[in-house]
Amino acid sequence: MPIVAPSLLSADFTRLADEAKMLNTSEADWFHLDVMDGIFVPNLTFGMPIISQLRKLSTKTFDVHLMIVQPERYIEEFKKAGADILTVHYEASTHLHRTLHAIRQAGMKAGVALNPHTPVQLLEDVIEDIDLVCLMSVNPGFGGQKFIENTYKKVLKLVDMRNDSQTNFLIEIDGGVNQLNAAKLTDAGADVLVAGNFIFSSNNPIETIKSLKYCR
Ligand SMILES: O=C(CO)[C@H](O)[C@H](O)COP(=O)(O)O
C-alpha cells in the first residue's frame, strides 16, 4: 500500500485551515508542501511562514519539496517551520553531498528530487545519504500537468539501484498521479504517491485519497 501525500499546491489557499483539517480526517499519510522561488521554476508559492502555521494544524508528516536555487540557505529555517522531510533538487544543488548531510544533521529526512530529464544514475555516489528520491513525473512548477510515461522506467532503475546498494530510501512520484497510473507505479516499486490536482479538484477528496491508498 503506498504512502499518499496530497500536494497542497492544488488546495484552496483561501481555506487552507479547512483543507488541513480535511486531510487530517482522511487516509492521507503526509502533507506534501511545494516551495517555489520563481527562479528554479517559473512559479511562486509559499515558504516558512505558511508551513509553520500549517504545522499547528496537523501532526502528519510534512514532506517539504524545495523547488528553489541554493536550497542549503534555508535548511535550519524549514526545520524550525516543521518540516520532517526536506527534499532539494539535484539540479539546484552544487554541493549535494554537503546539503544532504546538513539536512540529516538538522534532524530531518533528506530527499533529492530529479527533474524528468535527469538520470537516476547520477545519484549513485550519494545513495547512502538519501532517505527519499522524488521522481518528477512532470516538469516542476505547476499542478495539473500530464504524467510523463518515461517515469516507470526510472522507478525500475531506482529499485535496482536500491537493491544493489542495500539502502532503503523511499521512491516518491510527483506530478500527474491519478487513478490511471497509481497501481502501475506502485507495482513498479514506488513507495510514495504525491497528488495535487487529482485530489483537490475531485468532488470527494477523502474518497479520492482512499482510491490512491488502496490502488493495490
Ligand atoms: O511539485 C509539483 C509541481 O512542481 C506538484 O507537487 C505536482 O505537480 C503535483 O501536482 P499534480 O498532482 O496536480 O500534478
Automatic annotation (TrEMBL):
Top-level taxon in the UniProt lineage: Bacteria
A Gene Ontology molecular function term of the record: D-ribulose-phosphate 3-epimerase activity
Entry annotated with the keyword DNA repair: no
Transmembrane regions: none
E.C. no: 5.1.3.1
Reaction(s) catalysed (UniProt annotation): D-ribulose 5-phosphate = D-xylulose 5-phosphate
Annotated positions binding a divalent metal cation: 32, 34, 65, 174
Cofactor(s) the record lists: Fe(2+); Mn(2+); a divalent metal cation; Zn(2+)
Protein's pathway: Carbohydrate degradation
One example of a Gene Ontology biological process annotation: pentose catabolic process
Active site: 34 (proton acceptor), 174 (proton donor)
Positions that bind substrate: 7, 65, 141-144, 174-176
Record's GO cellular component terms: cytoplasm
Stated family: Belongs to the ribulose-phosphate 3-epimerase family.
Protein name: Ribulose-phosphate 3-epimerase
